[in-house]
Amino acid sequence: MIIYLYGPDSYRRQEKLKEYIERYKEKYASGAGVFDLSDEKDFGGLKDFSESRSLFESSKLGIVYNFTDLEEGGLKEFISLIKENLKNKDLTLILNSDKPRTRADSMRGRQPTKDLSFLLKEPVISHNFDLLESVELKKFLDVEIKKRKIELDLKSKELILSGLSKNTWEIVSALDKLSLLDDKKIDQKILEKHIDLLPAIDVFAHINKMRDGYNVGSRLATLEELFERGTDSAMIFNIFAVSPYLNQDQKITMADYDAAIKSGKLEYDEVLLDMMLG
Questions:
Q1: d(CA 106, CA 261)
Q2: Is 6 helix (H, G, I), strand (E, B) or coil?
Q3: Pairing of strands 125-128, 2-6
Q4: Which of 138, 156, 190, 202 sits at 20 to 30 Å (Cα–Cα) from 208?
Q5: Which residues pair with 4 in a beta bridge?
Q6: CA of 227: how far to CAs of 104, 117, 164, 220, 240, in Å?
Q7: 95 vs 92: CA distance, rounded Å
Q8: How many structural domains is the chain composed of?
Q9: Terminal C-alpha separation, the chain
């Protein structure tokens, strides 16, 4: 049996891998063989592992990484090995990949090349782990919060999603740390007290400086520093937009900015500059 886990979201891909390993452990005593095919020696080990039979175990599990790094000849040999074992009930190979075969493929999306396209068809069991977008990312956050038996209010969730974007590893890391607090019901005030739990803490500090800056020069200098550090413009805007310190007029202004951005009339950079000059 062949299982194919692929896509850039390595946290969710790793969780699915752990799930399969746990299922295997429940049935069989032996451990899994692990093969990193960026090392040619491991490819030889994978072939030996696939061909050998054990007198003591009726099934074997192998986990394969970096098979897309194989050169053309090695790739053909790998494809042949996989196809020979598509219906092998005594051998399970889990192919774990975060990237497509070539740079050109990367620009077209994360589907396998033509030679590897059979991995998306039966009898292969495939799971795609693309980066989560807004609605699915919110669902992911809610599930992970529930797992840790904590509660976050809406503003806290928005701050985490704005600050950490689509990085599921950083999101779960932040939630793990928040779950260690005495407070299990976390609102924005508690989150701000422990804001150092989040990786990009300097972003929040700089945004506070921009919000509280009394002159245009200091606000612009702070914004320029964030840009120089590569901070995402959308993230900066969204953190401003959910600030609890906005008065009613400011909330209306932020909503107008948001509408202008979504309609394509303005870019995030232009909006932030206008805000700092105001």
A1: 28
A2: strand
A3: parallel
A4: 138
A5: 95, 126
A6: 30, 40, 16, 11, 15
A7: 10
A8: 2
A9: 62
d(CA 100, CA 206): 38
Cα separation, 244 vs 86, in Å, equals 56
CB 164 within 8 A of CB 234: no
The partner residues of 186 in beta bridges, in order of sequence, read 152
The pair of three-digit structure tokens given for residue 45, joined into one six-digit string: 């080990």
Residue 209: give the domain boundaries: 134-277
Tell me the pLDDT tens digit for each residue of 120-177: 999 999 999 999 988 999 999 999 999 999 999 998 898 888 777 788 988 888 899 8
Phi, psi of 94 (to 5 degrees): -105, 115
pLDDT digits (tens, 9 = 90+) for 42-83: 889 999 999 887 666 778 999 999 898 888 888 899 999 999
In this structure, the answer to whether residues 26 and 71 fall within a common structural domain is: yes
Helices 216-228 + 233-241 axis angle, to 10: 130
Same domain, 93 and 154: no
CA distance 185 to 169: 22
Same domain for 258 and 191: yes
The answer to whether 60 and 31 are in contact (CB under 8 A) is no
- Listed residues 88, 104, 128: the one ending a domain: 128
Amino acid letter, 241: A
Distances in Å between the alpha carbon of 60 and those of 56, 246, 266?
A: 11, 59, 57
Write out the two tokens for 176. 């793990």
Same domain, 147 and 253: yes
Rounded CA-CA distance 6/127 in Å is 6
Return d(Cα 192, Cα 186) in angstroms, integer: 10
